[in-house]
């Protein structure tokens, strides 16, 4: 698997004069391959091909798309360690983590394949004609959901496999019947090329049209902006910063035909330490907290950046234990020098806010390692300074102490939207937990009890989403089978001859799909 | 049922010094009741009450909400002819139509009640824990969809019952578990008050919290703007003009926390007359077309405003027959003098475009009646002038002749998004229809064969929606059971004790809902 550095515009790889290089995340050294930077012409051609492929691709049966997704997973597996090893060089993430991430990536492709084979996700509905109905007869009405159109997928920095070129957004868009134009994250162009070529081999093996998948790279923001602006693009999947997500949303809203942007952006994942749990197991909670916070240098959307509790001796014990645990974490290289610089700036900015006190830092290490940091503040400071609620991407957290439960409840009500909130609780904390639940349900896509938010299961019940600014559309999830719904739209067929209907809706049910008949599911 | 003209802010009706009057649509005379204009304070209070009611209301069971919806329908029925008679005075729409619209309004409330009782729409999912799984155990994960929050509903001008205060947006939002703050259309404040009071009686009968429903009136755009800007509002339902929908979308996007706007805006509902159908039944098609076009003075979102066909003798016959039929239509009073003035201006503007020819007009009548108008143009003119694609709300249509099928196909590809497209076809037109289908599926929410787009069935398979600018979100419908999905968002519960779970997800399934277990539906 030699990397060529080419852009993958459908089946037509091409090199461009302007190139960039990947950087070894651990050493900071430039890696050899010169990767082409996509031009406006490349963006336009990838979108044109995607548009041309759309009608053919969306008309494939769920079973055909399932085979395609399984084939992509096979091709990723066939890369062996080449893929995680390249991802390791480009991201600095440990191999064990990347092997797990690869399993997750192929697992979610196969999960969508199973979803398609189960045949419900196209939501076929038939309301038969009622010619005898009075005062007016009812027509024959049939509905199915079709892929919304070509989807632009932005690879994330922090999951070079699972949220990138062949990640969840791509898997759910392809499952929905949408061609994908992927925009490689500039920090891992080699990983992206390997994954992109795997997808293109699957396109070829499955006999799908050219343009079902393209991959564009390059560091310039203009590439993403051109992609989202292109008239052929019907929706956008993005995981990244709040600034990035808002910028893409603004571009999408300003188009002559606005399109939806599903941006997963910003979350500090509050953890509530309720009194009984804190009293009985402050040390264990502190240790688990630091373990969650320091995992992957805190470079997770679900990293626990805010701890909330009522002030007192138990919380003091928790803080002391957390500070001790922090001193023993192994510093980990951050994904990119830019992320590292942003982390340091965020920590410095938080440290300078009134009422914010440094509690502890982790060991210092190489120039690009994350220097884990814990701050404390009281509720009053937190409630009066919105900066204390800003996400700092990395192993930094703020512990906020409240004088009483009422204040804790007030802090909860004032939180922004979150991907997750967690309750650390014992049975005797149930009343307080019950009082918090309605607030937490308004604030977050996922609520955990006695767990830590890092680690997102890929399954039907998962919600990896949440109210703004956690995402740009809190009615969706980017992980789990529900992710496909972002890229589907319903079409209704009234009195159409069988020959004009999609196979999913024809008399005799040739695709053997589950279909809702007259409202009965 | 004496009208008071009061604002219905939750259970606290109130009068304001600034008032406005309804107008008898047929005579233009001012009607007696003085209706209060909502102030910024009223908007704020209605939103605050809705927010306060939200947690209680969304926690009701689907069965409780079903009872509420049925009770609203009962209360509307209990108004007897008072409601349609008032709607007739304020809208000029014929009583027969309004009796049908009332049946539709109560029918859709009852349809959502049945949907709730069927227990699937909350989409309960349980992925049980797998403590033995390697390398890491799986947590217990459960998901349900909850109401997104208080919804602002804007009453439409053209359906004073079915798309207004107690109309489809209100029914689907209440079904979802969302309080509603309705903004009465200023053209029918009395109809709105009657419907609003019916809903409030149902709130009381069902023991639901104050603030589940409020009704605000007044002619100023500032009322709607304040409503959409209010931090308590989580989503907007709107049916009206493109300008209105875009204005509300811009306000919603500019909020500190942006919210979704489901605006149904603009559609010219193209009808394709395919050659064999046109050759064999030009006269019958013309008669049915004029019947659809002139119904309700063309004041339907689905009025057929564009006819497309290949030039020739058959199309000439169709035009001649349409012109004859148009001469015999009964002119109908338009909904408001403003809509009438906009109609006349739109007709005049279209008449002035190069290549647009007047084919025929209907009879003239009173000062506010719709003067039905038919224009013709060729494909070249249509393709080069976007004004020819603009919606003219009323009985005005443009017949576009194409030199050949290839041009017809090109015109189809260049259409904007539509609520509907219709094919008039015989069996021998199937090849052309098949060639058009992929284009039509991209363009419209509903595709009809040998029918006319006016008349929207309320049923599970209906899609009353479509790509922009037909709506602001082509992934949704505002009619049919799918409308509820606009106002739901998923929440995932991880390892929560049974006591903290919503009843729908508790062990033992106390609500006896359908639940997806481990992905099996």
SSE blueprint and pairings:
Two copies of one chain form a homodimer.
Chain A: E1 7-9, E2 12-14, E3 19-23, E4 30-36, H1 40-58, H2 62-78, H3 82-91, H4 95-118, E5 124-127, E6 141-147, E7 151-154, H5 168-176, E8 180-183, H6 189-205, E9 213-216, H7 221-229, E10 235-239, H8 242-254, E11 261-264, E12 270-273, H9 275-294, E13 306-310, H10 313-327, H11 337-351, E14 357-361, E15 373-378, H12 379-384, E16 396-402, H13 405-414, E17 418-424, H14 430-443, E18 444-449, E19 488-494, E20 515-517
Parallel strand pairs in A: 5-20, 7-8, 7-10, 8-9, 10-11, 12-13, 12-17, 13-16, 15-16, 17-18
Antiparallel strand pairs in A: 1-2, 3-4, 5-6, 6-19, 14-15
Helix pairs in contact in A: 1-7, 2-4, 2-5, 2-6, 3-4, 3-6, 4-5, 9-10, 13-14
Determine the N-to-C terminus distance of chain A.
48 Å
Q: Can you tell me the CATH topology of the largest domain in chain A?
A: Aldehyde Dehydrogenase, Chain A, domain 1
CATH superfamily of the largest domain in chain A: Aldehyde Dehydrogenase, Chain A, domain 1
Number of domains of chain A: 2
CATH arch. level architecture of the largest domain in chain A: 3-Layer(aba) Sandwich
């Amino acid at each position: 698997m030699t990397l060529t550095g080419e852009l993958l515009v459908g089946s037509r790889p091409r090199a461009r004069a302007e190139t960039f290089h990947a950087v070894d995340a651990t050493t900071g050294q430039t890696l050899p391959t010169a990767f082409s930077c996509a031009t406006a012409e490349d963006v336009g051609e990838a979108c044109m091909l995607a548009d041309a492929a759309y009608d053919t691709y969306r008309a494939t049966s769920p079973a055909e798309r399932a085979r395609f997704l399984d084939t992509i997973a096979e091709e990723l597996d066939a890369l062996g360690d080449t893929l995680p090893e390249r991802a390791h060089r480009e991201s600095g993430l440990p191999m064990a983590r990347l092997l797990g991430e690869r399993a997750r990536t192929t697992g979610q492709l196969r999960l969508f394949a199973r979803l398609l084979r189960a045949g419900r996700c196209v939501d076929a509905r038939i309301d038969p004609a009622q010619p005898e109905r009075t005062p007016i007869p009812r027509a024959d009405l049939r509905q199915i959901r079709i892929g919304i159109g070509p989807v632009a997928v932005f690879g994330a920095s922090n999951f070079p496999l699972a949220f990138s070129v062949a990640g969840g957004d791509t898997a759910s868009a392809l499952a929905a019947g949408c061609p994908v134009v992927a925009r490689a994250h500039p920090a891992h162009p080699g990983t992206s090329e390997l994954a992109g070529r795997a997808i293109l081999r699957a396109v070829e093996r499955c006999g799908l049209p050219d343009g079902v998948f393209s991959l564009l790279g390059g560091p310039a923001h203009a590439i993403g902006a051109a992609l989202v602006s292109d008239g052929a693009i019907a929706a956008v999947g993005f995981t990244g910063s709040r600034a990035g997500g808002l910028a893409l949303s603004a571009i999408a809203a300003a188009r002559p035909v606005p399109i939806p942007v599903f941006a997963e952006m910003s979350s500090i994942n509050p953890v509530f330490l309720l009194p009984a749990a804190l009293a009985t197991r402050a040390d264990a909670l502190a240790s688990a907290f630091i373990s969650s916070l320091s995992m992957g240098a805190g470079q997770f959307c679900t990293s626990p950046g805010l701890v909330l509790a009522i002030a007192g001796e138990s919380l003091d014990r928790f803080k002391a234990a957390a500070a001790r645990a922090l001193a023993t974490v192994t510093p980990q290289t951050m994904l990119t020098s830019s992320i590292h610089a942003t982390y340091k700036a965020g920590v410095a900015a938080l440290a300078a806010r009134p009422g914010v006190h440094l509690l502890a830092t982790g060991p210092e290490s190489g120039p690009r390692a994350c220097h884990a940091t814990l701050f404390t503040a009281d509720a009053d400071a937190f409630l009066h300074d919105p900066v204390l609620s800003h996400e700092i991407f990395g192993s930094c957290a703020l512990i906020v102490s409240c004088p009483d439960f009422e204040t804790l409840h007030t802090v909860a009500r004032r939180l922004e939207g979150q991907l997750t909130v967690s309750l650390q609780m014992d049975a005797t904390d149930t009343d307080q937990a019950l009082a918090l639940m309605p607030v937490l349900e308004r604030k977050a896509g996922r609520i955990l009890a006695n767990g830590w938010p890092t680690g997102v299961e890929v399954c039907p019940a998962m919600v990896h989403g949440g109210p703004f600014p956690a995402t740009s559309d809190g009615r969706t999830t980017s992980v789990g089978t529900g992710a496909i719904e972002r890229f589907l739209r319903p079409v209704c067929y009234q009195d159409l001859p069988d020959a004009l209907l999609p196979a999913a809706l024809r008399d005799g049910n040739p695709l053997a799909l589950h279909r809702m008949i007259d409202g009965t599911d």
